[in-house]
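fyi for ur records
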Amino acid sequence: MNKRKDLGQHFLKSKTIARSIVDSAKITRNDIVLEIGTGHGILIPYICKNAKQVFSIENDHNLYLSAKSNFHDYSNLVLEYGDGFKSVHSFSIFVSNLPYSKSRFAIEWLLQKKVSRAVIMVQKEFAEKLVSNEEHKAISVLANYGFRIKFLMNVRKSNFFPMPKVDSTVILLEQKKVIQKILISTVNRIFSYRRKTLQNILKQFGVNSTSKKRLDELSGDEIIKIAQKIIRS
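which gave:
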């Protein structure tokens, strides 16, 4: 059994939770679903039940071969080997139990895609940061600008093998708008100067300002507007 601990990969073993994850995606016969990280295929039977088409992509060759053997009789399923984040498939719904190490990257990637909604499993602490009002993070500002975020369920670490050190949370992301890569990179760069005043942050981009406020004093939408101003300048 390939445990892939180095990738932060832990495999869900509860079929009840797997069914709940897929049910939350509200897949219909009109939907094309993308799953990144086939793993042992615990989500596949539930995803394929209602979807028009399912693309499930796995970057571990042994797991891919195992899935090809175990799920060859699903007519609406296409299994692929490779990096799912390089996929060119169009899809309306994204469902994935992501390796913890890929959570931020996956959300930034999803923000640039036209997708109805996504149901993903992330580390509980990461999920809490996405909606925290105590301290802004670049990823939380971006995620809340592009998605409506809803917590669906917490999943105890005992539901995985190998068992991780932390609990997980399943979240629903419903798209509000597609975000361009330049906006994502600009917001990330703004946050690299987060301890500076707004005046000094904007100076890094050649934009004049007299504001002495810091990022934590601004709303997420205000930070997005600043990033858009930088892009236009």
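The first helix runs from residue 15 to 25. thats all i got for now
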